[in-house]
Amino acid sequence: MSDEPGGFYYHDPFHDDRYATGATAFSFSTSTNSSLYNSPSHDLHGLGSSHMSFTESLHGSTDYNTIETAFGLSPPSSQLFSVVKEEQKPLVMDGGDTVVGVGETAVTPNSSISSSSTEAGGDEDTSKSKKDRLQKEVEDGGGESSKKVNKSKKKVEKIKREPRFAFMTKSEVDHLEDGYRWRKYGQKAVKNSPFPRSYYRCTTQKCTVKKRVERSFQDPSTVITTYEGQHNHQIPATLRGNAAGVMLPPSMLTMTPPLIAGTGFPQEFIVQMAPMYNHGGMSSFYPQSSNLTPLHHQQLQHPDDYGLLQDMFPSTFFKQEP
DNA sequence: CGATTTTGACCCGCGC
DNA sequence: GCGCGGGTCAAAATCG
């Protein structure tokens, strides 16, 4: 667990033993520009409504198609390193740790992915552990023998675990603007990492979406964000509209509509990309048909990235159910 | 003054 | 049974 397979080895964030869910990830190589994100004031506000629920998109089984289409499986060159979607279906590829190898740091073509999620056995309730438990107890009324009894109940509920969606982005700011309002409710040191992991909860009433943010110790410039659940509300008004003048990839816009509605796709994703658009560096996200000027030659630092992606996206990564 | 962050304590599952 | 690691709570502190 301590050596890194060739490229980028990441292990804890998604690892969560308890996340017994499957995880799917896709990555893009990056060219950098973390500076773009440096300024929180870079105004991600405005990226609003048209893109949001990536989560949702990934939620469904066919969603991956959307993503694939959206990204066009083209060569990598974005800020978004990788996205890992964790769902009920375990997508164990390698044993259990989530390994995402990509990005400029990726050197090994096949270090790519390995998703993780441990056995589907006892995972589920993990994240919603205590609170749910407590709630349950309350709901159950008694709560006496609760703990153990709950266990069995948990099993049942386990089935409806909230979808998780994790991705890595290059950013110097830990908590990226994603359009939603979050309240930090905890922070823990991450084993084997000097960087702590922060826990956030959507502040909107009734919204149970949570997210974890931590910095990769392998690559401090990378932030791993894991979303859990789906927003049951619209994105806060402030972000509405795409007024920031940020251009989004057509593909993005295309894929968003259906997703947007109700949930919240980690806008960081978009946010991350947006700046690149302005710099003409998003070629990778554009479908081949895009009229953007391809910058592959300058964007790609590692020819392998391309191949890597090809490897990852198509079938390996996007595990979709029939 | 309300909202948010900080931070230590607590709970829980898991492996040994 | 115990220790560890992860996740959450909640009181206190801080912020706007």
Automatic annotation (TrEMBL):
Signal peptide: none annotated. This is WRKY domain-containing protein. Keywords: DNA-binding, Nucleus, Transcription, Transcription regulation. Residues 95-117 have a biased composition (Low complexity). Coiled coil: none annotated. Pfam families: WRKY. It is found in: Nucleus. GO terms for molecular function: DNA-binding transcription factor activity; sequence-specific DNA binding. One of its GO terms (cellular component) is nucleus. Residues 171-236 form the WRKY domain. Residues 125-139 have a biased composition (Basic and acidic residues). Residues 94-155 are annotated as: Disordered.
